[in-house]
Write a structure and sequence with these properties.
Distance between the termini: 20 Å
CATH architecture of the largest domain: Up-down Bundle
Structural class: alpha+beta
CATH class of the largest domain: Mainly Alpha
Shape: elongated
Largest sheet: 4 strands, antiparallel
CATH superfamily of the largest domain: Outer membrane efflux proteins (OEP)
Number of domains: 2
Order of helices and strands: HEHHEEEEHHEHEEHH
Strand content: 15-25%
Strand order of the largest sheet: 2-5-7-8
Number of strands: 8
Number of helices: 8
Mean pLDDT: 85
Length: about 450
């Protein structure tokens, strides 16, 4: 059954007076507004989004290797010494086994052509495309994981600010009570019904509460700055949060596959595909190729100087079949098999660990759920006892020590209540994360 608990029932008016009007221009932010703003301004989320876009480009790059490619080539060569060829003398009627060296060609050679190539089947390109798709899935899961972590951090910081503001409300209420008590004791001292040491005890308590309030206020500002940083806002921007602490008592979350489990499963598929790609490297590859261009020859000696060009073009199919590369491929296969075993073990480890964490979070939440309401009723009881003791002290029935003990009991019950609320919110937030429901925080 859903239940709304506010820890400011006795102190809401005081809290509004002290905190509500300190910055009339500051915007009150809900936890949903904090999370929505972080989606736009948080730097870690922006980096994760950029990684997704980079992964998409890598996937398109891998697919582009299937497209035809055309290259333009040109070169010019000037031979200071023309290459020699050995001519058999038998061609010219000479004896067999005798050769004569001869230089062929002209010193000027110009070559310009277009080269075309397109793979028909290449297992390595196909494997790279599949890997790039899985890498894109991993980038998406990494973004989701970063997003959930940001949700978790914002929720945790938001709750901390609420708790600290609640502590301030309790301290302000106690400080007001102590000042009233000090005023009464001063009157009693003037009437010679109280000692100077009694006044000193109350003054010490007022000073301690004042110091404690300053420390809590400083810590609140620090946590609020951390919250603004996580959201992606500048530290100069003034914001206020909803001061009411709300939680749903003992809500049941539906277990779903967490991002960490999805991530290890996808990484396992990635390693399997890498293993398959290495095995397929033993398969032949087939591609089309072709060249079209011109070849120029020139001679710069008179009287036969010339520069002439002749067309050249051809096309064909190339088959590449790897026959032997030592044991390199087999060693790579063995390595990937070991990586795959580790990945499968890691997957089981993450699942079992998550199940254990879920059970522990449930137990932790159940153990503190009942104490929240119990401690809240104890606050009311301690408050009643305190006021009764103060009244008895005015009537001379109780002494100052009784009042101070009642005051300490009130403060202790307040602190116990806040501690119980903190533990409940933390365990509930952890349970949301472990059951894959952290995004429902907003």
């Amino acid at each position: 059954m859903k239940k709304l608990v506010s820890i400011h029932r006795p102190y809401i008016i005081l809290l509004l007076i002290i905190l509500g009007f300190q910055s009339t221009q500051a915007q009150v932010w809900t936890i949903q507004q904090c999370i929505d703003t972080a989606q736009v301004h948080n730097k870690n989320l922006q980096i994760s989004k950029n990684n997704i876009q980079s992964g998409e480009q890598k996937q398109m790059e891998a697919m582009a290797n299937l497209f035809p490619k055309i290259n333009a080539n040109a070169d010019y060569r000037y031979y200071t010494n023309l290459p020699y060829q050995l001519m058999p003398l038998s061609v010219f009627g000479g004896p067999d086994g005798k050769f004569k060296e001869a230089q062929f060609g002209v010193p000027h050679n110009i070559n310009a052509n277009l080269q075309f190539s397109m793979p028909i089947y290449n297992s390595q390109i196909i494997g790279a495309i599949q890997n790039s798709k899985l890498a894109s899935e991993i980038n998406l899961l990494q973004f989701k994981k970063t997003e959930e972590q940001i949700y978790f951090e914002i929720s945790n910081l938001y709750y901390n600010v609420q708790i600290l503001n609640s502590q301030l409300a309790f301290i302000d209420s106690n400080l007001l009570n102590s000042k009233l008590l000090l005023k009464n004791v001063l009157i009693l001292k003037e009437q010679l019904l109280a000692k100077g040491s009694d006044v000193n005890k109350i003054q010490l308590q007022v000073e301690q509460l004042t110091t404690q309030r300053a420390l809590i206020k400083s810590k609140t500002d620090q946590v609020l700055n951390a919250l603004k940083f996580t959201i992606g806002l500048s530290s100069e921007q003034k914001i206020e949060i909803d001061l009411k602490i709300k939680y749903q008592d003992k809500i049941q979350y539906t277990n779903s596959t967490t991002t960490d489990i999805q991530l290890v499963k996808t990484q396992n598929r990635f390693i399997k595909n890498e293993l398959r790609t290495i095995r397929n490297s033993k398969l032949p590859s087939l591609s089309l190729f072709g060249t079209y261009g011109t070849m120029g020859y020139g001679y710069d000696k008179v009287p036969n100087d010339f520069l002439k060009f002749y067309p050249i073009g051809f096309g064909g199919v190339q088959l590449n079949f790897p026959l032997l590369n030592g044991t390199v491929t087999q060693r790579k296969i063995n390595q990937k098999k070991i990586d795959l075993k580790n990945s499968e073990l890691q997957q089981l480890l993450v699942i079992e660990q998550n199940n254990m964490f879920v059970e522990n979070a449930k137990l932790q939440r159940e153990s503190v759920a009942n104490s929240v309401e119990t401690n809240l009723s104890q606050i009311q009881l301690a408050k009643s006892i305190y006021h009764q003791t103060v009244l008895q002290q005015k009537q001379g029935i109780a002494n100052l020590t009784d009042v101070l003990l009642a005051d300490n009991s009130l403060r202790e019950s307040q602190q116990n209540y806040l501690s119980a609320v903190i533990e409940y919110l933390k365990s509930d937030l952890e349970l949301k994360k472990l059951t894959g429901n952290i995004s429902t925080t907003k």
